Amino acid sequence: MLDLAQKKVLVVGLGRSGLGAARLCLERGARVTATDNRRPDQLAEVAAELGGRATLELGGHREESFVGADLIVLSPGVPELPQLAAARRRGVPVLGELELAFRFVDAPLVAITGTNGKSTTTSLLGAMVEASGRPTFVGGNLGCPLSEAVGTPAAALGGALVVEVSSFQLETIERFRPQVALLLNLSEDHLDRYPGYTDYVAAKARIFEQQTAEDYAVVNGEPDQRECRTLASGGWAQVLTFQVDPPGDPRSRGAWCEGGELVVRVPGNDIERLPRALLGLAGRHNLQNALAALLGARLFGVDLASCGRGLERFTGLPHRMELVAERGDVRFYNDSKATNVGSVVGSLTGFERKVVLIAGGKDKGGDYGPLLPLMGATVREVVLIGAAADRIEAALGDHVPVHRAPDLSRAVVLAAQAARPGEAVVLSPACSSFDMFGNFEERGEVFAEVARRISGGST
To answer: Smallest Cα–Cα separation from 103: which of 28, 200, 49?
Structure first.
């Protein structure tokens, strides 16, 4: 366990992770300074929560605070800074909030990463663990940071930690070791942060770095995700796969579908089955998420009956293909969390209705070409918003009609006017929200509000 008593700790970034890290360090007796580029008026609530127990340096970063610290705790959204480089040259250790919290927990941990499906899989797996009756924490990159679990029954022996982890969080791990690590899939994302795709993948692969031969690596076994298996095989953990279609080898271990059943086989067990109908979510991507969660939960020691109860209780997440309104026979789906192209493809491939798609936002540097197979097959028209609109329109060409809207509210109106009975209006942006909104939740709430207003007969 890390000794923080009377240590000078600098917390960089005062988002939810930074605030959680600051609280944890204060509870462990550290002298905490927190720094953030945002102005004091933008962080008034954070300052109030810390209650004067930490020194706040807002509106910019001071190099002397970095080089004079005994430890720096870095929030995952903070990019590399000149002040960080200076501190590293002085030998100041730098940890992420995830690594910091991991040093103070005793419970076993399952970690979930990947480009798409992390939040759904984490929440579903967490529901399975909770159904077993163990004190359970579900969070990380999703919702509550891991530091908020420290000191709770879920973080003690007998508890269970189910943690979504991002590539940003994995950049700063040292000892972080999940007993079960899930890598759901890989596709281009965050290329506005990383020099290239290989750098992004390398960050994701770190989830397996500290695992031992006693641990498990769960990876996507679909033909287009061989890269996941290659990365896992480079570690020490036992590798198992999930995929929708049954494997060719009857001795295979992992999870797959057979007819109307979800099938799972873990080391030391025979084949086990659950009804596929327990899954209340549509789409092949959600079937993959459910198989990953089922396999991960069984490897984590959750009994099959609890897995079934968790599967049955789970109804999906806000902002993830969430049905928010219906007018006549036109449905409105909020998929604001689809912040990259792969996520949009996963959401709309095989979708049961023709779609008027609302896309666009802050460009993340990826290729929009993978959207093309959806055009015409599923997507009948597109309404574009935000800074990435030019790039997306250029990629789509003349495959479908493309419209522009000055803001999301007008985009919903235009899409509703274009939609025909039996179709759907779907906000699935393929971009981050930061050009127009504070986060994807705010974007999704605006979409839902306008969609509900339209459905009530008012535009």
So the answer is: 28
